[in-house]
Design goal:
By secondary structure, this protein is an alpha+beta fold. The chain has one domain: 3-Layer(aba) Sandwich (Aminopeptidase). Helices cover 26% and strands 30% of the residues. It has 4 helices and 11 strands; from the N terminus they run E-H-E-H-E-E-E-E-E-H-E-H-E-E-E. The strands form 3 sheets. Strands 1-5-6-7-8-11-9 form a 7-stranded mixed β-sheet, sandwiched between helices. One of its GO terms (molecular function) is acyltransferase activity, transferring groups other than amino-acyl groups. Pfam families: Acetyltransf_1. This is Acetyltransferase.
Length: 184
């Protein structure tokens, strides 16, 4: 079952996010800010996936015009004006639930919400070093197009100052694949 995220799931989302992505990836303050940026016109674009009340995954998404286009974005190569582009912040699925299409279902839920909010596309920085490059593969399968690769994307960011990558440690050298998904 996929439902809109509420603060009742924050502890579980933080625990799963830090387990999958690395310690310091999420905390209550950052998660609250992310979910707030996901609301527009009373519509929430952030979701959790549950089975028998157990959190299996989550999708965090910013509404268009509610996130900062930073040096890791290449809007000159986007096919949609920036004011109509949401941001797919994070898609996380528990290890035991991977490979069953849950990430795609969470993405579909966020796309539907973004469309209701007025967005025409979404951009994401996908973790190229995810297990079997699954992040880029699932986003490509959904129709995402590679815009640019950004080495060292998560190294010493103000967004995640205490982040410890599960692969690289505190000096993250992972690459982000900037990808655009346009909505039909």
């Amino acid at each position: 079952m996929i439902i809109e995220i509420t603060d009742a799931y924050f502890d579980e989302v933080i625990e799963l996010g830090n387990l999958v992505h690395g310690e310091g990836y999420l905390d209550h303050s950052s998660l609250s800010m992310i979910v707030e940026k996901g609301y527009k016109n009373g519509i929430n674009s952030c979701f959790v996936a549950l089975e028998a009340d157990k959190l299996l995954g989550f999708r965090l998404t910013y509404a268009a015009e509610q996130w900062d286009i930073d040096k890791w974005c290449t809007p000159s190569k986007w096919s949609v004006a920036t004011e109509y582009v949401g941001y797919f912040k994070c898609n996380t699925v528990a290890e035991e639930a991977r490979g069953k299409g849950l990430g795609g279902l969470l993405l579909q839920s966020s796309v539907a919400a973004l469309k209701q909010q007025g967005a025409q596309a979404g951009i994401s920085h996908l973790w190229k070093q995810s297990p079997n490059n699954s992040a880029v593969r699932y986003f490509s399968k959904a129709g995402g197009k590679l815009i640019k690769e950004h080495p060292n994307r998560w190294n010493n960011t103000s967004e995640h100052p205490d982040y410890i990558c599960v692969i690289c440690g505190s000096n993250c050298r992972c690459t982000a694949s900037e990808m655009l998904l346009t909505f039909n």
